[in-house]
Amino acid sequence: MLSEKLHVALNDQMNYEFFSAHAYLAMAAYCTDKSYDGFANFFLVQAEEERFHAMKFYQFLSDKGYRATIDGFENPGNEFSSILHAFEQALAHEKEVTRRIYNLADIALEEREHATSAFLKWFIDEQVEEESTFSTLIAKIRRIKDDSNALFLLDDELAKRSFTPVE
Ligand code: MG
Questions:
Q1: Predicted structure pTM score
Q2: How close is the Cα of 149 to the center of ligand 1, in Å?
Q3: Cα of 127 to ligand 1 centre, how many Å?
Q4: pLDDT tens digits for 92-135?
Q5: Looking at the domain assignment, is residue 118 inside a domain?
């Protein structure tokens, strides 16, 4: 049994992960429009990862005997002024995800819901990776500045990213 507070918070996070996929899809579309296919691929893979995250919550709720309820999404934002801006938005988004995961972990801890705490551990580790990935790319893009050759090479590198679910 999960408390009402905890199961609602888990369901909210599932929906936020779906919303994250939506936000990254908008970033992918921006990059494709600017002919940066590698950056677009990076964000498309990121969107797939977010759906995978959402489905982990969906499955966990189901395993605990709860039915997942799917919300609608707000507009995730489609306006970006540059590739750098899209990545900065992505990092800000991941920081918000981390804040939400920590909040969930706090509730699980308060309620001594150990199974939920154990489930959330994967997400706590994942958020360290997510923030690090975006911070590193932002540092690279800032260093590149207006060097279009270097930006082309980074775009090429990100074209190779593919989705590999990590359990
Ligand atoms: Mg996520």
A1: 0.95
A2: 31
A3: 7
A4: 999 999 999 999 999 999 999 999 999 999 999 999 999 999 99
A5: yes
Distance 147 CA to ligand 1 centre (A): 31
Q: Report how many domains make up the chain.
A: 1
- Answer whether residue 90 is part of any domain: yes
Range of the domain at 151: 4-69+80-158
Three-state DSSP class for residue 105:
helix
Ligand 1 midpoint to CA 28 (Å): 16
Contacts 24+ apart (CB under 8 A), 125-129: 126/53, 127/94, 127/97, 127/98, 127/101
End-to-end CA distance of the chain: 24
Would you say residue 164 lies in a domain? no
CATH number at residue 39: 1.20.1260.10
Confirm whether 163 is domain-assigned.
no
Contacts of 44 (CB under 8 A, 6+ apart): 24, 25, 28
